[in-house]
Amino acid sequence: MEAQDNIEQTLWAYIDGICDEQTHDRVAKQIATDALWGERYAELMAFNASLTNGLELEEPSVRFTKNVMDLIGQASVAPSVRAYINPVVIRSIGALLLLSIVVTTLYAFFSAGAGAAIPVQEITIPKAQVHMPDAANFINTNTITVLLCVNVVLGLLFLDTVLRRKARHL
Amino acid sequence: MHAQEDDIAIIQMVLQGQQQAFATLVARYQNYVFTIVIRHVNDRELAEELAQDVFVKAYKALSSFKGNSKFSTWLYTITHHTCLSHLRKKEHETVFPGDEQMHLWANGQDGSHAGTRLEQKAQQQLLNEAVKQLPESDSELITLFYNAEQSIEEISVITGLTTSNVKVKLLRARQKLKEILQTRYSREVLR
Q1: Which of A102, A132, B106, B136 would staple B185 via disulfide (CB 3.0–4.6 Å)?
Q2: Does residue B157 contact residue B111 with C-beta atoms inside 8 Å?
Q3: Which residues of A touch B (CB under 8 A)?
Q4: A49 is in which domain, residue-wise?
Q5: Which of A69, A71, A77 shows the shortest C-beta gap to B63?
Q6: Domain limits for position B179
């Protein structure tokens, strides 16, 4: 079955003209010498011809063009991006950002240099009196179970979204 | 298919203010766009609405068409994204055409083919109905490749898939189509 699939895959590439020259020559030789390949090739060629000649286009209503032109009558062509974005403005904004980064870096660098001269003893950090709740009170078996459940549900929702998206594109 | 130069000349005319020239492009590509859309939504009325929307979007964005690809490829890319965006908004339910009707055609019992072999036209009709039974992404690929004559690379641009992915999906789509024809209408179509 897999061999059949490979033959078909190779033959379609040959028929569509998308295989390289070397493969093209090899397949042409195979078709001429191998009965199985020759038979499959004739079959696929017939199917390809029926697709090329037999598939019809659907036609919209006769008023279609008029309807589109009526809709377009109220619209206008959006100007090209280049027309309303001035590259000078973009470059100026970029230069300003770059300049601010350079200035900030230099300021920080020199401040640090000046600060290094201050004796360490002179710097006193005030002790803040912040009463933080004890995390141990909140983290217990129940909390972990609830968090795990929420994560599992979120994971399933994400998996469902991914699988739906994949199924749509298959 | 129409010459790319011809399309570009019309686009230039539209951009210079000759709005009516756009009607030529609409008339030229309406069947292709409509067919791609109907492969996605399987509802003529809705397909017509979406196809109109595609042309309006294309008109508004015409100045952004740089001519790096064929106009048709650019237009079908808009078509593809418009369809996907519609399907995302509204969960699409695939409605297959009535199997009973298909069997009636295939067996020549609908009156028009009674007692006779199916004519070429009827075989084409079966083929087209079989394409509609493919998943929407597969029937879109078949339409783009065979009807709209887009190359693998161009389909890759339109759908956002890699070329190797397009090749594999096209192969699978043809296999599925063949399977549908063989299992349901074998004697009539693949004689």
Answers
A1: B106
A2: no
A3: 8-9, 12-13, 16, 18, 47, 50-52, 54-61, 64-65, 67-69, 71-73, 75-81, 83, 168-170
A4: 2-54
A5: A77
A6: 99-189
